[in-house]
Specification:
The chain has 495 residues and is α+β, with helices and mostly antiparallel strands. It has two domains: 234 residues, Glutamine Phosphoribosylpyrophosphate, subunit 1, domain 1; 239 residues, Rossmann fold (3-Layer(aba) Sandwich). 30% of the residues lie in helices and 24% in strands. It has 16 helices and 23 strands. The strands form six sheets. It has a seven-stranded antiparallel β-sheet, covered by helices on one side. It has a six-stranded antiparallel β-sheet with strand order 5-6-7-8-12-13, covered by helices on one side. Helix 4 crosses helix 5.
């Protein structure tokens, strides 16, 4: 997915951007970058973070940049292209960072090449055009950064949150027009302003959270303070999966704490899907908060039959080979035999994507002597591949275990909508087949309405990966436009 952190400060902004960006390391595992503006020039460092943590890779750059005593800086962690990019245009020199997914990138490129007779020469991974270069080109078609940022966002299908640092000493933050990803403002008494995706980065750096940007809002941050240049709107479609898994437990989005949300989610699971057991546990670390909520509400004692060993296994180490990834996942989790042997266990986890890792962990529990293994998942079954954010390595919807099971049950013409209803027979058959394949005693998933209840901000969340509904195109109920329910183009749109 990715994350970013920007700072404008009277003095000493480099330590803040260095550590603030590092607090987004759980958001990406491919590239990291820092840029500062000092002495009428930009200074940038970009590194591969696949085999080393951000903090280690950028220690030298942080020391070097600190010696420049800059007032302006931004950092970014990305699962996509090298970031930030440096651009020279009629608007001046600027640095640009991005979080999101531009699904109509080729359409935009074709239009720019055809209508503006421009060209693209910066290549990203796999010889593809760098998304940042395309976004910069869109910005540069307008007469100001404010207009350009708004225009770029209006052209993107998918999602697009941006940080732009200009040579005039202004840091622009533009939240995705549907609010799918968060951007939060903070400040501290020393005359420093910061913008982040993870509020967990604020406390230890001395910042207090001031407010969340609204969907589509654009602000300009300078040494004089924060100025809104595009108002945005109250309606949003923030990704629900941030609360379920991807967001950091200590963070807050839309005023709602992630850890508390997961705790409530587990409590609701215990009421909806009770079972007798000796212990409740969470698959470390993503299932822990859900398990604590389940244990408290059910009265079943919480325990840790698996503990996680992380000192020599940084999260950023994500080998491309599936078998090696699986081996590393197993190496990180250490069983505690006395809490497993002869025990009936409930394990909470955030989600099931392919099912491979969970199947192996369940097998390890039985091998260690568990009598029963009941699994409770904190979100509904994943039925659709996200088209707004890059959450996983899933390349095809058929990577999802749900889709493979549905294909075997009904063939390629199956109506996926029938598998969304947890009270319907198709849904029950799918879950039972999943339980059988993964070797669990029982398996149950959270319901969409309980996810919404645990978050507590109403229907202003995106649940596309579970429901196929794109609420940004019309809200729940009725026509959704381009979403999984109506095909690529709905009947209303063709009129």
């Amino acid at each position: 997915m990715g994350g970013f952190f920007g700072v404008v400060a009277q003095q000493g902004c480099v330590p803040d951007v260095y550590f603030g960006t590092d607090y987004h390391s759980h958001m990406g595992t491919v590239r990291g970058g820092i840029v500062v503006y000092a002495g009428n020039a930009f200074h940038r460092s970009i590194h591969n973070i696949q085999n080393a943590q951000f903090r280690t890779r950028f220690e030298g750059a942080a020391k070097r940049f600190a010696g420049l005593n800059p007032n302006y800086a931004l950092g970014v962690i990305s699962d996509q292209d090298d970031q930030p990019v440096l651009v020279r245009s009629h608007l001046g020199m600027f640095a640009l960072a991005f979080v999101g997914l531009v699904t109509n990138l080729q359409e935009i490129v074709d239009e720019l090449v055809r209508d503006r007779r421009t060209h693209f020469c910066e290549l990203g991974k796999d010889s593809a055009i760098n998304t940042l270069e395309v976004l910069a080109m869109l910005i540069n078609t307008r007469d100001s950064f404010e207009e350009g940022l708004a225009y770029a966002q209006s052209r993107v299908e998918g999602s697009c949150s941006l940080l732009l640092l200009s040579e005039r000493g202004v840091l622009y933050a533009a939240r995705d027009r549907f609010g799918r990803t968060p951007i939060v403002l903070g400040e501290k008494e020393e005359g420093a302003f910061a913008v982040t995706m993870e509020t967990a980065a604020f406390p230890n750096l001395g910042y207090r959270r001031t407010r969340d940007l609204r969907a589509g809002e654009i602000v300009a941050i300078s040494l004089d303070g924060v100025r809104t240049v595009a108002e945005g709107r109250e309606e949003s479609a923030i990704c629900a999966f941030l609360y379920v898994y991807y967001g950091y437990p200590a963070s807050t989005y839309e005023g709602v704490g992630v850890e508390r949300t997961r705790y409530r989610s587990g409590a609701l699971l215990s009421q909806r899907e009770p079972v007798e057991a000796d212990h409740v546990a969470g698959i470390p670390d993503s299932g822990v908060a859900h398990a604590l909520g389940y244990a408290f509400k059910s009265g079943i004692r919480y325990a840790r039959p698996f503990v996680k060993y992380t000192p020599t296994w940084p999260r950023s180490f994500m080998p491309p080979d599936q078998s090696l990834r699986q081996k590393i996942a197993n190496m990180k989790l250490l069983p505690v035999p006395e809490l497993i042997e002869g025990k009936r266990l409930i394990f909470c986890d955030d989600s099931i994507v392919r099912g491979t890792q969970l199947r192996n962990q369940v097998g390890r529990l039985y091998k260690a002597g568990a009598e029963e293994v009941h699994v409770r998942i904190a979100c509904p079954p994943l039925l659709y591949k996200c088209k707004f954010l890059t959450f996983s390595r899933t390349e095809s919807v058929m990577d999802l275990i749900t889709r493979r099971i549905i294909l075997e049950l009904e063939g390629p013409e199956a109506d996926i909508r029938r598998y969304r209803d947890p009270d319907g027979e198709p849904y029950k058959r799918m879950v039972e087949e999943m339980r059988r394949r993964l070797g669990m005693t029982s398996l149950a998933f959270q319901r969409v309405e309980d996810v919404e209840k645990s978050i507590g901000i109403g229907p202003r969340i995106c649940t596309y990966c579970w429901t196929g509904e794109d609420i940004s195109l019309g809200g729940r109920g009725g026509c959704k436009g381009r979403c999984a329910l109506c095909g690529d183009r709905c009947a209303m749109e063709r009129k």
